[in-house]
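User: Reviewer 2 asked us to show a designed sequence for the structure in our supplementary figure. I'm pasting the structure tokens here. Could you produce the per-position amino acids so we can include them in the response letter?
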């Protein structure tokens, strides 16, 4: 018997709210998303914050890289809905004991923030979440560092690279799954695919019973999935 494909709300619900905003995450929690996907950086004073880009330019009226600001300085540059750039701590408090999975991406493929893995994982461990957090990154070294800190956690590699033998790669790197930007045949139970917004692509993937997808429109994805995977 197949498990239902998990649908992760990619950066919350950006079709309606600013991406990576607490407002968008709360909407996804309240409306039945299976999981939340979010991105974590460190400020100049080593505070974990949630934003996709290394720079604040696209999603605020400020300019510059996150790691060049203290968190107090970042507060001057709110998101489009007036929220301050979310603290990881506040996000974890929002999630609390809700029945929802979390996919935390270490945004370390362009800037490898020193110590981010330990800082973030310690903070996660301080919260009594219902499910273990899925840790992912495009930067394999970040996952290696995290694995040394706690080999018992769930680690997944984000990639556009196509592997001749993806199962062998997963085993070699001690991963739980791949998070590819494409459908990889033969590892349906070990892949969560990003970022799927096209309804026709959703239908194909749901018919193949992939483990999960990341989407900017979890509401549409849930409707399509529930028609196919009854």
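Assistant: Here is a per-position design you can include in the supplement:
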């Amino acid at each position: 018997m197949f498990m239902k494909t998990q649908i992760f709300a990619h950066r919350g619900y950006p079709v309606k709210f600013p991406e990576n905003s607490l407002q968008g995450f709360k909407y996804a929690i309240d409306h039945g998303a299976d999981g939340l996907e979010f991105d974590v950086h460190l400020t100049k004073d080593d505070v974990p914050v949630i934003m996709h880009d290394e720079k604040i330019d696209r999603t605020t009226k400020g300019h510059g890289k996150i790691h060049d600001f203290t968190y107090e300085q970042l507060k001057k540059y709110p998101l489009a809905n007036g929220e301050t750039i979310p603290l990881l701590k506040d996000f974890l408090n929002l999630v609390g004991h809700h029945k929802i999975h979390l996919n935390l991406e270490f945004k370390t493929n362009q800037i490898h923030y020193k110590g981010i893995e330990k800082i973030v994982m310690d903070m996660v461990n301080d919260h009594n979440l219902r499910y273990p957090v899925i840790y992912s990154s495009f930067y394999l070294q970040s996952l290696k560092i995290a694995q040394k800190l706690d080999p018992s956690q769930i680690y997944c590699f984000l990639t556009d690279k196509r592997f001749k033998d993806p199962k062998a790669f997963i085993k070699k790197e001690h991963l739980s799954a791949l998070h590819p930007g494409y459908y990889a045949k033969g590892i349906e139970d070990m892949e969560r695919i990003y970022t799927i917004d096209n309804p026709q692509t959703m239908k194909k993937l749901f018919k193949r019973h992939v483990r999960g997808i990341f989407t900017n429109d979890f509401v549409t994805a849930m409707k399509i999935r529930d028609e196919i995977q009854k």
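For the response letter, you might also mention the following. The longest strand covers residues 35-42. The helical segments are 22-30, 71-74, 88-95, 116-125, 140-149, 166-172, 199-207, 218-228.
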